[in-house]
Specification:
Layout (H helix, E strand, L loop, with lengths): L16 H13 L4 H21 L1
């Protein structure tokens, strides 16, 4: 039986050091991987944008 996990892609990005340090700290505080935390942040951000745009 195949897993129903969402497809994922690897990317490379460049971040300002203060942003990276904050991401690391917040991910650790929430006991998440950096990747998981960034996905969560972006998902929430896009949901807010959709709500704003679609009223």
């Amino acid at each position: 039986m195949q897993s129903e996990r969402p497809l994922k892609s690897k990317i490379s990005i460049t971040l300002d050091d203060p942003i990276l340090e904050r991401l690391k700290a917040e991910a650790e505080y929430q006991d998440r991987s950096m990747s998981s935390y960034i996905n969560l942040l972006l998902r929430d951000h896009f949901e807010r944008l959709d709500k704003k745009r679609n009223g």
